Amino acid sequence: MKRINLRDMYPFIKTDVWIDLDDEVAQEIRRFDLNESAYKLRTYRHRAYYSLDRNDGIEQDVLFLSISPEEYYERKLSNEQLYAAMCRLPEKSFRRIYAHFFLDMSKVAIAQAEQVDERAVRKSIERGLKQMAQFLKKM
Predict the structure, then answer these.
(1) Pick from 128, 63, 64, 65: nearest CA to 97
(2) How far apart are alpha carbons 93 and 122 in whole angstroms?
(3) Tens-digit pLDDT profile for residues 28-56
(4) What residues does the RNA polymerase sigma factor 70 region 4 type domain cover (predicted)?
(5) Domain of 91?
(6) Is 0.85 topped by the overall pTM?
(7) Residue 59 located in a structural domain
C-alpha cells in the first residue's frame, strides 16, 4: 500500500487529503506522470506549441472540404457525361477501361484475367479513351 496526497493530483483541492492505494494503481499513476512529463519535454524541445485540433474548426475545414451546390452539380454533370461516353464504347473497351481506372487494376493483370496479350489491352484502352474524348468534345 502506498499513501498519496490528492492535493498533488487535483489542483482544486485546497487541503491535504491522504489516501491509501494499491501498489499497482500507484505505479500506473506514476507511469502516467512520467509519460506526461516526457510529452511536455518533447513539446518544449521541438517547439511544438501549436495544434490544429483546437476545436475552432480549422482542422475540420482542412480535412473535410465542403463543396458548394454549384460544385456538386458540376461534378454530377461531369460524372453523367463520363458515364454516357463510356456507355457508347464497345463492351470490351468499357470493361477494360473500368477495370483499369475504377478498379485500379494494371494492364498486365487485366490481360492475365482475360487471357490475352498486354498490348491488346493497352491498345483497347487507348482506342476507348480516344472515342470517349471525341464523344465528350461533341457534347
Answers:
(1) 128
(2) 10
(3) 999 999 999 998 888 888 877 665 566 66
(4) 80-132
(5) 77-138
(6) no
(7) no
